[in-house]
From TrEMBL, chain A:
Catalyzed reaction equations: Exonucleolytic cleavage in the 3'- to 5'-direction to yield nucleoside 5'-phosphates
Gene field: LOC105906004
InterPro entries for the chain: DNA_clamp_sf, Rad9/Ddc1
Keyword Chloroplast among record annotations: no
Molecular function via GO: double-stranded DNA 3'-5' DNA exonuclease activity
Keywords: DNA damage, Exonuclease, Hydrolase, Nuclease, Nucleus, Phosphoprotein
EC number: 3.1.11.2
Biological processes, Gene Ontology terms: cellular response to ionizing radiation; DNA repair; DNA replication checkpoint signaling; mitotic intra-S DNA damage checkpoint signaling
This protein's name: Cell cycle checkpoint control protein RAD9A
Cellular location(s): Nucleus
Organism name: Clupea harengus (Atlantic herring)
Domain of life of the native organism: Eukaryota
Pfam families with a match to the protein in the record: Rad9
Start and end residues of each stretch annotated as Disordered: 251-270, 298-321
From TrEMBL, chain B:
Listed name of the protein: Cell cycle checkpoint protein RAD1
Keyword list, A-Z: DNA damage, DNA repair, Nucleus
Subcellular localization: Nucleus
Naturally occurring in which organism (per UniProt): Clupea harengus (Atlantic herring)
Gene3D superfamilies xref list: 3.70.10.10
GO biological process, one term: DNA damage checkpoint signaling
Main location class: nucleus
Originating gene: rad1
A Pfam family the protein falls into: Rad1
UniProt record similarity statement: Belongs to the rad1 family.
Length: 321, 280
């Protein structure tokens, strides 16, 4: 397996990894002949993110015939390869990711330049663990609500909330969306600073709301997809469009994509359970961010995070049948 | 009592008098070797040498030659004492880190000899502070017996480029391995940490390599904890020379330009990390 990314794509790759690190602690790396997938899931399995990089993204994309490669490693190890994000574009000429069947490590090589003369060569051999494919159990097509906008809108919206804030409430009606910070304790409300932001449907490129809804998100997970730089891809034919879906659905066998949901708990009653998916796409890569929402007080306190069906799974979960 | 660079009445008692218009020309270079509390001061007519050691395996020396000082008077051939470097630096920077252009702190450093404290007169904007720091019996600095004639490999690099590698070094690695060779990889820094290993290769014919004289392929390991403090000297310097001798001892020499553009040197010596090889 031998992939080479050059120029500004190295920075995109680095930013993708950094934004994945905001969700999970392990990076799931999967390469096939068609794409390279970088995925992660958070510890409670309630948020999932992935980047699919197509061959077009790379200067060289070589996957041996019929071979696919899968592994996982601590995301911090991969982040260490791409330090000093701001100077990456100026100093790194290309990034090579290699693996040979007999090796137990994945090799990342950064070819740096200094004043257009070949400079430092940074080689990182990272140990990995074998793993199964990490997939999200989710069906976008069944979403009753679809909001589509330029990524800048989401970036600007999230900026208004303090980074230390844990949860936000996102509500949609037929003509507007609003976001406000969520304060758990009623008594705190008078003391906390409340921020509320309205976005009319006109701000969006597409605004389809068939089910007015309100749900809570973990802010950190919501802001993760805003990390990669969409600006680079604005001139592409497809553009870069985040799709925001708020759904109300019951996750069950009919919505499986790849793996059956590995619920380690008894199935919960068919209440409203909400997931949201953000996706960014261009001709060179696709990324998807899934976040499950925290139950609103009206749904009852019995529905805790543990009670939700897992959103993402790999068959290496403990407690296999 | 305004400071002046001319001899003062009462100076006869001092064996060493050194004055500086800008104390930063001394304090900055001392910061590059402050990784231990105590330092050995040795003054000769050529100037000042300050030595800090760690675990008998690492030695750092800062050289501030007599020409750097506005006045440097030595009544004896050699004078030495041990002093608390942290306290000394606190005193030298007692007026704070002001970088207002034109405003500098002046220093007059005086020493009466064995058993006497080191006296510092510091002045900024008409305000004078007097500090007296106790001195101790100086220990003999380690002689690493590093001779230029025994140097097998030598490179001189621009500090910028080495700074980049040092700032990214995997700190979970206990050792830093340095490979120097007349063939690939020429000059390589390697770490072996929790997530895997990393190598930083410097090609011999790049702009940042000012000198490349490697005769034999050598790979040596050094304790990361010992070399980490050298990044302070690296940050201050514009060039660094890396030399190893036949025993694998490492010499790092840093060329530092002070505020007035004058050159001073900082040097680190480090002994290689010996591994006990239990297998044949």
């Amino acid at each position: 397996m031998d992939y080479v990314a050059t120029g500004s794509n190295v920075k995109v790759l680095a930013k993708a990894i950094h934004s994945l690190s905001r969700i999970g602690e392990e990076l799931y790396f999967e390469s096939t002949g068609r794409w390279l997938a970088l995925r992660t899931v958070n510890s409670s399995r309630s948020a999932f993110a992935c980047f699919h990089l197509c061959p077009l993204f790379f200067q060289r994309f070589h996957t041996p015939q019929g071979d696919s490669f899968r592994c996982k490693m601590p995301i911090k190890s991969v982040q260490a390869v791409f330090k000093s994000l701001s100077s990456l574009e100026k100093t790194v000429e290309k990034c090579r990711i290699e693996w040979k069947p007999e090796q137990s490590q994945l090799t990342f090589t950064l070819h740096c330049k200094m004043c257009s003369v070949l400079g430092l060569l940074k080689t990182h051999n990272l140990s990995f663990q074998d793993c199964e494919s990490l997939q999200a159990v989710f069906d976008k097509e069944r979403s009753p609500n679809v909001l589509r906008a330029q990524p800048r809108l989401l970036v600007d919206t999230v900026l208004h909330f303090p980074p230390s804030l844990e949860e936000v409430t996102l509500s949609v009606t037929s003509d507007r969306m609003w976001l406000k910070n969520h304060v758990e304790d009623e008594s705190d409300q008078s003391q906390a600073m409340m921020t509320e932001l309205y976005l009319s449907s006109e701000e969006f490129e597409d605004f389809v709301v068939t089910l007015a809804n309100q749900h809570h998100f973990c802010l950190k997970e919501l802001s993760a997809p805003t990390a990669p730089p969409p600006d680079d891809f604005m001139c592409d034919a497809h553009g870069l469009i985040p799709h925001c879906y708020g759904t109300s659905e019951i996750a069950g066998p009919s919505t499986q994509i790849n793996q059956p949901p590995r619920s380690t708990h008894a199935p919960t009653p068919p209440n409203h359970r909400l997931f949201s998916c953000f996706s960014l796409s261009s001709s060179q890569f696709r990324s998807l961010f899934f976040g499950s929402v925290l139950p609103t007080p009206s749904q009852g306190t019995s529905q805790t995070l543990q009670g939700q069906d897992v959103l993402a799974s790999d068959s290496e979960d403990e407690g296999s049948p | 009592m305004p400071l002046s660079t001319e001899s003062q009445p009462g100076d006869e008692q001092y064996v060493l008098v050194a004055t500086l218009d800008n104390v930063r020309n001394l304090s900055n270079i001392l910061k590059a070797i402050t990784f231990k509390d105590h330092a050995i001061f040795n003054a000769t007519r050529n100037g000042l040498k300050v030595t800090v050691e760690d675990s008998k395996c690492l030695q750092a020396n800062a050289f501030i030659q007599a020409e750097i000082f506005q006045e440097f008077v030595m009544k004896e051939d050699s004078v030495g004492f041990q002093i608390n470097l942290t306290v000394l630096l606190d005193c030298l920077t007692i007026f704070g880190g002001s970088t207002v252009p034109g405003v500098t702190t002046a220093l007059r450093m005086c020493y009466s000899g064995y058993g006497f404290p080191l006296t510092l007169f510091l002045e900024e904007g008409g305000v004078v502070t007097v500090c007296k720091i106790n001195t101790q019996e100086p220990e003999e600095p380690i002689d690493f017996d590093f001779c230029s004639t025994d140097v097998t490999n030598k490179v001189i690099l621009q500090s910028d480029s080495l700074r980049e590698a040092f700032s990214e070094l995997d700190m979970t690695s206990e050792i830093l391995q340095i490979t120097m060779s007349p063939c690939q990889p020429f000059f390589r820094l390697s770490t072996f940490g929790n997530s895997g290993n990393a190598h930083y290769d410097y090609p011999k014919d790049s702009d940042m390599m000012e000198l490349f004289q490697c005769t034999t392929t050598q790979t040596n390991k050094y304790k990361m904890s010992l070399l980490k403090p050298s990044t302070k000297a690296l940050a201050l310097s514009c060039k660094v020379s890396v030399r190893t001798d036949s025993r694998g001892f490492l010499s790092l020499q840093y060329l530092v330009r002070n505020d007035d553009g004058q050159i001073c040197f900082v040097e680190y010596f480090c002994s290689p990390d010996e591994e006990v090889d239990e297998e044949s």
